[in-house]
Specification:
By secondary structure, the chain is mainly β. It has a single domain, classed as monomeric porin ompg (Porin). It is built from 2 helices and 14 strands, in the order αββββββββββαββββ. The strands form 2 sheets. Strands 1-2-3-4-5-8-9-10-11-12-13-14 form a 12-stranded antiparallel barrel. The chain has a two-stranded antiparallel ribbon with strand order 6-7. The radius of gyration is 19 Å and the shape is globular. The N and C termini lie far apart (42 Å).
Length: 271
């Protein structure tokens, strides 16, 4: 039995080499949470993203998958900012903009910024009070595919592909010798011109194992963080696995519990 579990964990770790973080910020799979990174944490990574949960710019016959990369930093314990780029192909259907030699090739990228502000720390005032975070993804838009000026306009001529505002609350429950359960609720809102709108409540949970490190199996399981969520649009499940403490992490997502996305997250703690 132990040999079977060992093989399973090895397979799990290898499959985790592809992981997912669409927004490039702290959270579950696609749902925002109120969790924060350690102060002065620099985070960067990249992902392979299935087209089905993506905005229409990617969810079409030109794509099976696309890719993104991002950087982020927790400047203060209560403030996180991030910058993300998602690769874009040239399309024959938009030949007035894309030259023929770009059709079907990754030749451009969509850029967006994110920010998260902690309003209330978990355990302030009373031990049962949750942590609360206010956040935004893609608040401004580049006026053209090639970049252009940044606009906060909400008309239909700009590319708010990933726009989302939210407020999120998180509470943790520790089970000694077993692990930590995180409960998360949020309310999301996207502007009317966003090409993929998140409007309404979101709810999710994660469980990070914290077993006593008395065996190889226990040590391996302690790197596993199971996640499930409703992100106000779809029900998703997946996991995160930490290979080397919190420095190298992999996240695997099954959007709608069937469409795979994944990538790697690297963290450097500057403090």
């Amino acid at each position: 039995m132990k040999k079977i579990l060992s093989v399973f964990l090895v397979i799990l770790c290898v499959s985790g080499m592809r992981a997912q973080a669409l927004w490039g910020t702290t959270g579950l799979l696609r749902m925002p949470t109120a969790e924060m990174q350690k102060d002065k944490t620099f985070m960067f990574g990249g992902n392979i993203l299935d087209k089905h949960p993506m905005p229409p710019r990617w969810n079409n016959e030109s794509y099976t998958y696309t890719y993104n990369y991002y950087i982020g930093i927790t400047i203060f314990p209560w403030l996180e900012v991030a910058y993300s780029c998602t690769l874009v192909k040239g399309r024959k259907q938009e030949s007035s903009y894309w030259p023929e030699e770009t059709w079907g090739k990754f030749v451009n990228q969509d850029r967006n910024f994110s920010a998260r502000l902690r309003l209330w720390k978990e355990g302030w005032w009373k031990s049962w009070t949750p942590q609360i975070v206010l956040g935004v993804n893609d608040p401004g838009s580049f006026d053209s595919y090639g970049g252009g000026s940044i606009s906060l306009d909400q008309n239909g001529n700009t590319s708010h592909h990933f726009n989302r505002y939210y407020i999120a609350a998180t509470k943790h429950l520790n089970f000694e010798g077993v692990g930590c359960l995180g409960g998360h609720v949020a309310y999301c809102y996207s502007i009317k011109s966003a090409s993929l709108r998140y409007v309404g409540p979101a709810v999710g949970a994660n469980f990070r194992f914290q077993l006593s490190e008395t065996s190889f199996i226990n040590k391996a399981v302690n790197g596993l963080n199971l996640m499930a969520e409703y992100d106000s649009r779809t029900v998703n499940c997946g996991f995160e696995y930490s290979f080397w403490k919190d420095y190298i992490n992999a996240v695997v997502e099954l959007n709608r519990c069937k469409y795979f996305s994944g990538g790697l997250i690297f963290k450097v703690h500057l403090k």
